[in-house]
Amino acid sequence: MPREARLILNDLVFPEGPRWYEGRLWFSDMHAHEVVAVTPDGERETIVEVPNQPSGLGFLPDGRLLIVSMTDRKLLRLDPDGLWEVADISDMAPYHCNDMVTDSEGNCYIGNFGFDITDGSPPRATTMVMVTPDGESSVVADGLQFPNGTVITPDGKTLVVGESWGQRLTAFDIAADGSLSNQRVWAELGFPPDGIALDAEGAIWVAVPTNPGALVRVAEGGEILERIDVPDMGVYACMLGGEERKILFSLEAPTSNPQPGDPRRGRIRAFDVEVGGAGLP
């Protein structure tokens, strides 16, 4: 029986990078240049404007917000007196930065496009960069095909990233110093993954950004456990939130590259699911 969707928020340009934190869904409206928080009842607050397009979000152990600034390839931190630069990783990320995951110590794992997807440039493999809370940066993985949505397992020992151009989920072991090793395929998908969300049974919900799009629940090894089709939108990110993390938030838009003057057709919808979220984000 199809799951029933309920609308949480509309009139968005391009919602991305959702995080569940302190009773609200935080996300980047990327092309509107703002970070927004919304309650499950749809009460929204604009948190901060980010001139160079916000994408991945995270939180330090003390609760301060971390934001990937896409086009200048920086990690920013929101302090009480405004935005501050944590790190400039433009020398390590060949093109626009996108999603990230922040671990329990505040280390951030940041992906990037690797190439300009809008001008016909050929795809190229790229890096994942780790930034510590004090701004030290290092390349912790290379050879990835458009690393995108990322999760960390509850024990903090495994990172899984969606390779959009590789059409797979890829796993790494996380060492005590945050470095990554033992790269391996977690699941071959046959479709491009965008944002992802891990649940308590070890399955991963995958946002499918084609239009029509979908939310697909995948087990390690690639078995499809469930599929929710979205016939009129691409699904660019997802997050398990709510009191028991049993609300699956779906971030949707008609295209990843809206043009100036396009109507605000992006939206966030929610589905109730049986298995709650786990791990990070």
Architecture overview:
There is one protein chain. The protein is an all-beta fold. Helix content is 0%, strand content 54%. It has strands at 6-12, 15-21, 24-29, 34-38, 44-49, 54-59, 65-69, 74-79, 82-88, 97-102, 108-112, 126-131, 137-144, 147-152, 158-163, 168-174, 180-188, 196-198, 204-208, 213-218, 224-230, 234-241, 247-253, 266-272. The radius of gyration is 17 Å and the shape is globular. It starts with 5 loop residues before the first strand and ends in a 9-residue tail after the last strand.
How are the secondary structure elements laid out?
Blueprint: E1 6-12, E2 15-21, E3 24-29, E4 34-38, E5 44-49, E6 54-59, E7 65-69, E8 74-79, E9 82-88, E10 97-102, E11 108-112, E12 126-131, E13 137-144, E14 147-152, E15 158-163, E16 168-174, E17 180-188, E18 196-198, E19 204-208, E20 213-218, E21 224-230, E22 234-241, E23 247-253, E24 266-272
Antiparallel strand pairs: 1-24, 2-3, 3-4, 4-5, 6-7, 7-8, 8-9, 10-11, 11-12, 12-13, 14-15, 15-16, 16-17, 18-19, 19-20, 20-21, 22-23, 23-24
